[in-house]
Amino acid sequence: MSMPTDARGELEDGRYSYRQQKDGRVVVTWYGRPVTTLAGKDAQKFLARVEGLGDHEAQLVMARVTGNFKRGNER
Questions:
Q1: What is residue 72's predicted lDDT score, i.e. its pLDDT?
Q2: Number of alpha carbons in the 13 Å side-chain half-sphere of residue 8
Q3: What pLDDT score was predicted for residue 70?
Q4: How many domains in the chain?
Q5: By residue range, what is the domain housing residue 60?
Q6: 35 with 47: CB under 8 angstroms?
Q7: Is 20 part of any domain?
Q8: Superkingdom of the source (predicted)?
Q9: Which helix (H) or strand (E) holds 43?
Q10: Residue 6 domain-assigned?
């Protein structure tokens, strides 16, 4: 499976990050704000996928996991 690309270069600033909670959940954030929380098998699958990736590749994975959460009405 090929990795999608960031054609517009918008993920270069490291806008996404994640942290693993003690209970195994993973919180994915956008500029420090929580966007989505993964639990159980989804969290394990996410951690296995980002392990060993470079920063930019991990940004792509996190963008994919959060989905299309911005709808244009945010301020």
A1: 60
A2: 2
A3: 65
A4: 1
A5: 14-66
A6: no
A7: yes
A8: Bacteria
A9: helix 40-50
A10: no
